[in-house]
Amino acid sequence: MRLLELFEQSGKTAAVAFGRMNPPTIGHQKVVAAILKQKADAHFLFVSQTHKPTGKNKTRYENPLPFDVKLGFIEKAFPNIDIGDTSVSTAIGLLQFLEKQGFDNVIFVGGSDRVASFTELFNNQNGVDYNLKSIKVVSSGARDPDAEGAEGMSASKMRAAAIANDFESFKSGLPSGLESDAKEVFAAVRQGLEPWIEEKVSEAGKFPFAGVKVGHKEGPAGQWRNKGPKANRPAKVGDLVGGSS
Q1: Cys bridge to 174: 88, 123, 148, 178, which one at CB 3.0-4.6 A?
Q2: Least confident of 10-19, 187-196, 218-227
Q3: Could you give the angle at which helices 155-163 and 182-192 cross, rounded to 10 degrees?
């Protein structure tokens, strides 16, 4: 490593990820493991507070658990990592918060399909919205929505299982730290998804709410994507996460 690189990377380093985790899954367990393996002075998991308790809409469908309930499950599932400040609501806001806390370098863990776009976004905004010595975006591992296990698990699949009253599939997607609480998590998610419970979901992961656009579905990192060769859109300043649905 050159002397210039050593100088640029001096100072405090934070390794972080940011997601909705509604509900937490074995995929999120993989993200936490990726955060903790980074060489850093501090490791944080930031969690969004998005929740809408009434109505039948996309926001409620994607966030069936109230924040306090979700946070309780997350803290039990991942007791070995610190939860970041809950006032942070976007990825850019996360970097601004870390700068104010005295961190000079940030390692951001995200979905493999978002590494390039978030690397570009974070570095383009460096010197505009915040001033950090270095920002590195690393992958939490390959993501394949059709794969078995952590590589293919998503919160959208868990919500679909809850609506279908498929407890065994739901339980198989929970982090190991929530195995003994599987029925409680299942019941809480079903309660949040009450408007959809009596409807049949024809395709796992498809949003069964009014107003969904035909030809679209949720991408592996939780963002909307078009079918066909044009996949996930680039990351934008207001984005919430980098791949932790």
Answers
A1: 178
A2: 218-227
A3: 80
pTM above 0.70, yes or no: yes
List Cα–Cα distances, 57 to 54, 206, 207, 208, in angstroms. Answer: 9, 13, 10, 9
**Alpha carbons 214 and 51: distance in angstroms, whole number:** 25
Measured in whole angstroms, the distance separating CA 99 from the mean position of its chain's CA atoms is: 21
HEC-encoded secondary structure of 100-129: HCCCCEEEEEECHHHHHHHHHHHHHHECCC
Helix (H, G, I), strand (E, B) or coil at 81: coil
What does the chain come to in residues? 245
pLDDT tens digits, 77-108? 999 999 999 889 899 999 999 999 999 999 99
Question: Do residues 70 and 47 lie in contact, with contact meaning Cβ atoms separated by under 8 Å?
Answer: yes
Using alpha carbons, select from 29, 27, 30, 31 the residue that is nearest to residue 17: 31
**What tokens appear for 141 in the block?**
């591992």
pLDDT at 163 over 90: yes
- State phi, psi for 244 to the nearest 5 degrees: -130, 75
Query: C-alpha 232: how far from its chain's center?
Result: 15
**For the chain, which domains are there?**
3-226 (3.40.50.620)
User: What residues have CB less than 8 Å from 57, skipping those under 6 apart?
Assistant: 209
